[in-house]
Amino acid sequence: MLVKDPKKEFYDKIQHQRVLILVTFDVDALCACNILQYLFQCDQVLYTVVPVTGKQDLENSFLENSEGIKHILMLNCGATIDIIELLQPDDDVCFYICDSHRPVDVHNVYNGVQVKLLMKDEEMRDIPDYDDVFRDDEDDESDAESNDEGEQLSKRKRYSDEYILKRRERRQWEENRNKTLFEYTQFSSFGSSAALLMFEIAWRMSKDTNDLVWLGIIGVTDQLVHYRISREKYIEDVMTLQSHVSRHNFKEGPENNQPINSLKISFEDELQLTLYRHWSLFESICKSVTTACKFKVWSMKGRKRLHEFLAEMGLPLIQCQQKYSAMEPSLRNNVKELIQKHIEKYGFAPEDIVIPSFNAQYGYRNKLCASDVVLACCALLESPQEKSQNATDSFFQAMDILNRKNTKEMEEALNMAKKQIGALASQVQTFLDMQQVMSAGPFLYAFVQEGTLEAKCLSKPQCLQRLARFTLEAYSAERRSKKTQYLPLVLGVPLDAEQQTSLVIGIPPLNLDDERKNFFGKAFEQAAVTTNSRTLHNYFDNYILQMNTEDRGKFFDALINLLQVSLSLSLSLSLSLSAFICASP
Amino acid sequence: MLASKAFELIKELSRGNSGSLSPYNEDCIRQVLDEMKSLYEQNQKDVSDTVAGETGLFSGVQVRHAALERNKRCLLTYLYKRLQIIQEMRWEFGSVLPMDIRYNMCEQEISWFNRYNKMLAVYMRSIGDSGLDLTQDMQPPKSLYIEVRCLKDHGEFETQDGNIIVLKRNNQHFLLRSECEHLIRQGVLEHVTN
Amino acid sequence: MNSLNQQSFNDSNVDYDEDSEEEAEALTAAEVFAKLEEAWLNEKFSPELLEAKTEIVECIMDQIKVMEENLLKCKKDDMKICIHKMELDRIRFVLSSYLRIRLQKIQNYTAYYLNIENQRTDKQASLFSPEELKFAKEFHSSIDKHLTELAMQHMPSILQNLNDNLSGNKPDLDCYVFLRVNEDTDSVVIDEETTETGEETVDFQKDEQHIIRYQPIRHLVSSSQLTLI
């Protein structure tokens, strides 16, 4: 059930109770968790935070930690699965779900007692009506039917007009139900950031601080960086946050009367160059998705064009290859204006290169933009692990750097992020050089070669997401033909050499960018079922799965078949596919 | 050299870093005692010789006696200092010592530890009417509840209000400070400060 | 919030007789706590064991009990509870810390203090509380036994006495301490007359702060004319 008044229905309910918080491995969830921890510490609500990697982990963590706990909060997990069915909790356990994954499972939506959804009202419009998906008389009917079986008398009844009518009506309803459900679940997408929602709860209770705003900002930025929300939605959220930012950072009287180590957030148009404040300008341009693809930096010609561009701006190459912080101040201070002024000539739209964003500053040295924090945090979350380490080790390391006092750790994390992005860019280069991006007809696919150095740090869901997107954009920039704009991409990366598993992701075509809807979840599920492939749909993002590498062939054949049908009919999945899927259980 | 073994014991003490206990050096102690014995016998012999009329032995006796005194002092220091370390451990780890420390203690030290435990318990029980656990409240309290992170799998833990919490590596909890103070000192939990 | 405070504090206007004189003096809880705090600070900064403040400890223990009981009576979601619990934790910390420091001193110089205790005349107040005395004796004998078992009994017979070893250990009374003056005291001798220099004296005025060698002013600490800080 959707929570209308978070204070009354959520926050007041958990006062003086123990709360179990289950958090997934993404930056948004981390931020939301941090905000919650702050709130709970204010009000002395006892809690336990448990990080969960996937559905299996969710089940295990629930079993281990749920003893005596009546209130369970889920951050960025759980909405898309029927939580009561999966976890089989006691009747008095209540789940509060704050998850940006969509679509929300209908069972969760209509369970009024045990499941409370902390989501924005206006995002829940397209949920099917209760009557369309649930039917109260379901049970009696099947009961009646089975009873009928033995009795001769009722045999007549079965053929009576009334009964036939009822049967037909029922069949129609079922058909309709399947259709509605399919339409509802065919695309996976994302709603508002969990961190933003948590921040708004804090704000409504007048417990918001500047630090909490910053966490909200990072959450929203994470959604943008990982292509979860469209630019429009992002800007909408940023505007909401901006009013909070200006409220908290309003200074009366002369400036600089705030202590230097307090957090100052400022709203700015930010260059969309990855980590450029912590890198050299040149490196950053080569490794940012948009600039790398527009300049095609992987080709000689592209490099030349990039040099040309830098020359035109009057930035000496030597300065650009210098650490940004060591650039000559007169040049450095003008970089943004120069780039904005000259880049249009090279086929960029203004919104390709700048985006409204936020900067945080505290102390003399530490200036960070929101996407820097996201990338650093993400790099820590998904850092390659040694055998002895537990996946959860990195979770709290990542959580620690959200605390702004840990500046040293932050710097290390930024270096890790650079390494990760370097690996990403060089993998894209390999794909293009070796022409490893292939067309399977209805979609493109590519596989990271086994045994490469990069494979190890790329085999993480969030990173894979960015790699897939980078690859797709680079490929479509390389091929002039418009057709590539309409093709989705499936990308695989080896996960475990011993167990022969790989991680596979599907992302939608570029032309559907505005919607950020991904249909691969259903398609993967279907392809796996029809081919009996050994797959594991463990992630909360259903368009990412683990599969046995040997089954790749047949899985892809099925996927091609499935998508071919849909491709011929206007690209989004069609009803014929829907019939196909509904036919199977 | 006279009393060099005893000096070794002292060096061993000063080498040991805080928070650990070096193995009880029974071998060395026996050697020191043996040395004392032979020194003493030599002295006795010389003294009786002197009484018998021999001269020139007196300075030898004095040196040996000084060595005896030194040996005794070193030996006692060694034993006493170890007891002090064990004492500190009692406050650090509580009434049950970790195996690796127990392993380095000799039999008598273990029984002394148990006796110390007992007298401490008797004392703490006798404060006021109801007794007071002095090993609690070691740090000035800042807040009622603190945030802690689990460093190792510890298993179930029952809180004062009767709830059971599973302490598993890499979970984070918000708990009553007084409850987890012991666990923090044992290294099961880590206090997260922010 | 005040009501609970008042209530718990007034409930427990315990009779508290100072300096074991006959006149029973009623103190409020806040005053007892101030006394404990003073005793705690003195104990913390003085190099030697000070006189046991048995009455204060008992009084505070009762106080804690009363407060705990009062807390149980209150509703769970009360804002006051947190504050009172916190208060309770703080009191308990000061008390524990006070007793811990004393115990530490006793353990370090057991023989020295036991000697003092043995030579004490009935007129002098004991350094120990009865419980502490019991602990000290037990502690001393346990150490004795341990050392005898492991070393002494294996030594030649003329070396088998412990006295000079353990009792040689005594606190450093010549260390310097910070102090604040509680009441005016004139001409305190801080350096005894030697052949070269004359006697050196200092006049203490209320609220002054000094750094001074402990030995000459130790009697002023025990008569609470000074507080160590």
UniProtKB/TrEMBL annotation, chain A:
InterPro entries: CDC45 (IPR003874)
Record's compositionally biased regions (Acidic residues): 130-151
UniProt main location, coarse: nucleus
Any one GO CC term of the record: DNA replication preinitiation complex
UniProt region (Disordered), positions on chain: 130-154
Coiled coil regions in record: none
A biological-process GO annotation: DNA replication initiation
Highest taxon, organism lineage: Eukaryota
Family, per entry: Belongs to the CDC45 family.
The protein, known as: CDC45
Organism: Acanthosepion pharaonis
Origin organism lineage: Eukaryota, Metazoa, Spiralia, Lophotrochozoa, Mollusca
UniProtKB/TrEMBL annotation, chain B:
Keywords for this protein: Chromosome, DNA replication, Nucleus
SUPFAM superfamilies in the record: GINS helical bundle-like
A cellular-component GO term for this protein: GINS complex
The keyword Nucleus appears for this protein: yes
Subcellular localization(s) per the UniProt record: Chromosome; Nucleus
Domain GINS subunit as annotated: residue spans: 55-127
CDD domains: GINS_A_psf1, GINS_B_Psf1
Top-rank taxon: Eukaryota
Biological processes annotated in GO: DNA strand elongation involved in mitotic DNA replication
Main location: nucleus
The keyword Cytoplasm appears for this protein: no
Annotated InterPro entries: GINS_A (IPR021151), GINS_bundle-like_dom_sf (IPR036224), GINS_Psf1 (IPR005339), PSF1_C (IPR056783)
Domain DNA replication complex GINS protein PSF1 C-terminal, chain residue ranges per copy: 142-193
Any matching Pfam family: Sld5
Family: Belongs to the GINS1/PSF1 family.
Quaternary structure and partners: Component of the GINS complex.
Function: Required for correct functioning of the GINS complex, a complex that plays an essential role in the initiation of DNA replication, and progression of DNA replication forks. GINS complex is a core component of CDC45-MCM-GINS (CMG) helicase, the molecular machine that unwinds template DNA during replication, and around which the replisome is built. Required for correct functioning of the GINS complex, a complex that plays an essential role in the initiation of DNA replication, and progression of DNA replication forks. GINS complex seems to bind preferentially to single-stranded DNA.
Protein name from the UniProt record: DNA replication complex GINS protein PSF1
UniProt organism field: Acanthosepion pharaonis
UniProtKB/TrEMBL annotation, chain C:
UniProt key word Nucleus: yes
Compartments, as annotated in UniProt: Chromosome; Nucleus
Domain DNA replication complex GINS protein SLD5 C-terminal, chain residue ranges per copy: 171-229
InterPro entries membership: GINS_A, GINS_bundle-like_dom_sf, GINS_Sld5, SLD5_C, Sld5_GINS_A
Gene Ontology terms: cellular component: GINS complex
Any one GO biological process: DNA-templated DNA replication
Primary localization class, coarse: nucleus
Keywords: Chromosome, DNA replication, Nucleus
CDD domains linked to this entry: GINS_A_Sld5 (cd11711), GINS_B_Sld5 (cd21692)
Main function: The GINS complex plays an essential role in the initiation of DNA replication.
Protein name, UniProt field: DNA replication complex GINS protein SLD5
Organism lineage string: Eukaryota, Metazoa, Spiralia, Lophotrochozoa, Mollusca
